[in-house]
């Protein structure tokens, strides 16, 4: 599983991420970015491209190997 975080204070709505990984990132209007907080391993390559393409480095991608049940304290 891949965990995604976007620093929305940095995000300028350039939409590079929405173009490169549309399954994860969607731009609503001109500046509101919506994204899935978690994605499948299959999205990893696209996420890496989106992360690299973000002009303001707002995207953080974390690969989580442990099953999500093992993660606590994040709710
Ligand atoms: S590429 Fe970066 S700045 Fe552009 S919409 Fe995505 S997160 Fe925001």
Account of the protein in words:
With 75 residues, this protein is of the alpha+beta class. The chain has one domain: Alpha-Beta Plaits (2-Layer Sandwich). Helix content is 20%, strand content 27%. It is built from two helices and five strands. A three-stranded antiparallel beta sheet has the order 4-1-5, covered by helices on one side. Strands 2-3 form a two-stranded antiparallel sheet. Strand 2 and strand 3 form a beta hairpin. It is globular. It starts with a strand and ends in a 12-residue tail after the last strand. The mean pLDDT is 89. The structure holds iron/sulfur cluster.
Helices and strands, with pairings:
Blueprint (H helix, E strand, L loop, with lengths): L1 E5 L9 H5 L4 E4 L3 E4 L2 E2 L4 H10 L5 E5 L12
Antiparallel strand pairs: 1-4, 1-5, 2-3
